[in-house]
Design brief:
single chain, mainly alpha, flat
């Protein structure tokens, strides 16, 4: 009896020691992870903090090579934003139109491929997906010639006309995969109630696909907010320039030391919209898309 009790006490003491050792190990690993995370945060945030600090300096401080932390902050540097109000307006027009119609047309094109049985469905899907393998650089010259013949060069319509034609193969594929995860019994129930395919799409599927709509919309907005290549190819008049293009032309020939503070102020302004979108919708962006809108 005494031997049994002694053995149990020995096992209990060993278990406690092992548990304490495991807790210490977990604590050490947690501390190491947090230290690494803090170092990485400082590493990645340093360029932005440097840019923010330079945007608050005077031209003299920048020219003299002021230290990282400055004692005086010049908020008036951000008044340069007023110089680009027209260009910001052009950019907002492009962003808003693309931000809505790209995901909308992608969902509209994906709906029959995901929910309706029709002849030639698989070949149509294969043709759409095959366009992904075509390099965008190959299409630049043909697209420019086509736009020029239609009078779309030097017109901001050239930056959003493509939003009405499907939204891109990858966005269509993403929408198809999302719609396939929604039970088809919903469609059958709607048909019994007398709904046609348009009613099913606009009143049932479109609201259920809000997550994928929002995901595509955010990515399009962030991608076009400071797009440079498209406006550079198609826009010629300063009145039609987007924010990124006007910014480029204004600062490419100026003395860097004399305008660094203004350059940095404009760069800080440009980051505001993407940061707002990221912190507002980070669950949809980081967590990805939940394939399956119904639990």
């Amino acid at each position: 009896m005494n031997n049994t009790i002694a053995n149990e006490n020995t096992l209990l003491i060993s278990a406690r020691k092992e548990g304490g050792a495991n807790r210490k190990k977990r604590t050490v690993m947690l501390v190491v992870k947090y230290v690494i995370a803090v170092i990485l945060c400082i590493f990645f945030l340093f360029p932005y903090l440097y840019m923010l600090n330079k945007s608050l300096m005077t031209a003299t401080q920048v020219a003299e090579g002021a230290t990282f932390w400055t004692s005086s902050f010049k908020i008036s540097n951000f008044s340069i934003v007023g110089k680009y109000l027209r260009n910001i307006g052009n950019t907002l027009i492009i962003v808003v139109i693309n931000g809505f119609f790209v995901p909308f047309t992608a969902l509209f094109c994906a709906f029959p491929l995901a929910r309706i049985k029709f002849f030639g469905k698989k070949p149509v899907f294969a043709i759409i997906m095959s366009t992904v393998m075509i390099p965008s650089s190959v299409l630049m010259v043909p697209t420019y010639i086509l736009f020029r013949r239609f009078g779309l060069t030097d017109n901001i319509a050239s930056q959003f006309i493509g939003a009405f034609w499907g939204g891109g193969a990858l966005n269509i594929f993403l929408a198809i995969q999302f719609m396939r995860s929604i039970p088809k019994e919903i469609d059958n129930a709607a048909k019994i109630d007398g709904a046609n395919w348009f009613h099913i799409f606009f009143r049932i599927m479109f609201p259920l696909c809000f997550n994928i709509f929002l995901y595509i919309c955010i990515n399009i907005v962030i991608g076009l907010w400071m797009d440079f290549q498209g406006p550079l190819i198609y826009l010629e008049s300063p009145k039609n320039f987007t924010m990124g293009l006007a910014f480029y032309y204004d600062f490419q020939d100026t003395a860097f030391a004399e305008t660094t503070h203004l350059l940095m102020a404009m760069c800080v302004f440009v980051t505001i919209l993407p940061m707002i979108l990221f912190f507002t919708f980070q669950k949809q962006m980081i967590g990805g898309i939940q394939i399956g809108s119904l639990k």
